[in-house]
Amino acid sequence: MKISRRGFLGAAGASTLGGAITLIGLPKTAKAASVPEIKTVETTESTTICPYCGVGCGLIVSTREGKVINIEGDPDHPINEGSLCSKGMALFQVAVNERRLQKVKYRAPGSSEWEEKSWDWTLSEIAKRVKKTRDATFLKKEDDKIVNRTNGIACMGGASLDNEECYLLSKFARSVGITYLEHQARI
Questions:
Q1: Is 178 left (phi over 0), alpha (psi -120 to 50) or beta?
Q2: Is 68 in contact with 96 (CB distance < 8 Å)?
Q3: What structural domains does the chain harbor?
Q4: Is the pTM of this model over 0.85?
Q5: H/E/C letters for each residue in 78-116?
Q6: Beta-strand pair 115-117/104-106
Q7: Do the beta carbons of residue 146 and residue 174 sit within 8 Å?
Q8: Which carries the bigger pLDDT value, residue 100 or residue 62?
C-alpha cells in the first residue's frame, strides 16, 4: 500500500488525538442544569417576509400561545439564505415591545390629549375622510378629456405585502381614482 506524506501526517494526528482523549477521558460529571433550555421548543413556526425594504428576505417566526417567541432568517429562502441585515435582526424588538401601542389612540384637532377609540369608530372615520377628500379633489375632465381621478390622495404599498395583497391594494386605489400609486420597493 502506498501512502503519501500528507496522508501519513493526517492519520498520525488523528491517532494521537484519539489516544489523548482515551487517556484523559471525557468529563462524566456534566450537569443537565447547566445546559440552557432552547427557547423555540414547542413553538409553531411560520415563514414570512421582512417588512423593511424591497429585497424580500425570508423570516421564520416562532410563536407560542399567540405570542412571538423568536424571529430568525430562513435558511431555505433563496434571497437571504438565512442571513439578515441589522433591521431584520431587530424585528423581534418591534414585535415584542412593551411600548408598542395595542389600542387606537386619537387626538382631536386642537386637543393636547390622546383618547382611546374603538376599531369600529376608527375604520368608519377613515372611510368618511377618504370619501370627503375624494369628493373634494375629484377631477372628471381635464383639457376636454375624461380622466376620473383624485389628486388629493396617494397610496403607498409595503414590501411585506405579497403579490395578491399588492394586486388588491392597487385595484382598490384605482377604483377610488388614485393615480399617485407607489410601492416601497421603488423608493
A1: beta
A2: yes
A3: 44-95 (3.30.200.210), 104-186 (no CATH)
A4: no
A5: CCCCCCCCHHHHCHHHHHCCCCCCCCEEECCCCCCCCEE
A6: antiparallel
A7: no
A8: 62
